[in-house]
């Protein structure tokens, strides 16, 4: 399964890509003027295994919320969440907009997974 969710408001654009890889998933949330990798979380049914935040990157709250959603849903055995949203000369209002857009994308992903569960650890047991 491969699906993309996108949202644009003003000069801020972000997209969330969900790729299932067998019982696992790779999720990226990127956007702005220069999409990049700023934060990486890895986890699985037993919790968050590792988090990496590159210097001067502020996307951790966005990536952490997605990782927590994946933990709560128990849809995947393992997952990697990557995030990087950069907007040049961003204002405080636009920072709030980035967070709002990210929440919208996360909720769309959650609703999609509820309606189209790719894998349920609770039902199928550990792989």
Features:
6 strands; globular; Ribosomal Protein S5, domain 2; six-stranded mixed beta sheet; alpha+beta; 127 residues
Short description:
The protein has 127 residues and is an alpha+beta fold. Helices cover 33% and strands 39% of the residues.
Q: Structurally, how many domains make up the residues?
A: 1
Q: What is the number of beta strands?
A: 6
- Which quaternary structure do these chains form? single chain
At the fold tier of CATH, the topology name is: Ribosomal Protein S5, domain 2
User: Could you spell the SSE succession in H and E letters?
Assistant: EEEEEHEHH
Shape: globular
Q: What class do helices, strands and sheet pairing give?
A: alpha+beta
Per DSSP, the total helix count is: 3
The parts where pLDDT drops under 50 for at least 5 residues are none
Strand order of the largest sheet: 1-2-3-6-4-5
Protein model, in words:
The protein has 127 residues and is of the alpha+beta class. It has a single domain (2-114), classed as Ribosomal Protein S5, domain 2, CATH 3.30.230. Helix content is 33%, strand content 39%. It is built from three helices and six strands; from the N terminus they run βββββαβαα. It has helices at residues 60-73, 92-115, 121-124; strands at residues 2-9, 12-21, 24-32, 39-44, 47-53, 78-86. The protein has a six-stranded mixed sheet with strand order 1-2-3-6-4-5, covered by helices on one side. The two termini are 18 Å apart. The relative contact order is 0.25. The mean pLDDT is 91.
């Amino acid at each position: 399964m491969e699906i993309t969710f996108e949202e644009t408001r003003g000069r801020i654009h972000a997209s969330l890509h969900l790729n299932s890889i067998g019982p696992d998933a790779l999720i990226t949330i990127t956007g702005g003027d220069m999409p990049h990798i700023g934060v990486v979380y890895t986890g699985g049914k037993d919790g968050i295994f590792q988090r990496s935040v590159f210097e001067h990157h502020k996307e951790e709250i966005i990536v952490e919320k997605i990782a927590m959603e994946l933990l709560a849903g128990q849809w995947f055995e393992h997952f990697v969440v990557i995030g990087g949203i950069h907007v040049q000369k961003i204002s405080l209002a636009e920072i709030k907009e980035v967070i709002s857009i990210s929440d919208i994308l996360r909720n769309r992903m959650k609703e999609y997974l509820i309606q189209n569960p790719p894998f349920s650890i609770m039902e199928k047991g550990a792989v």
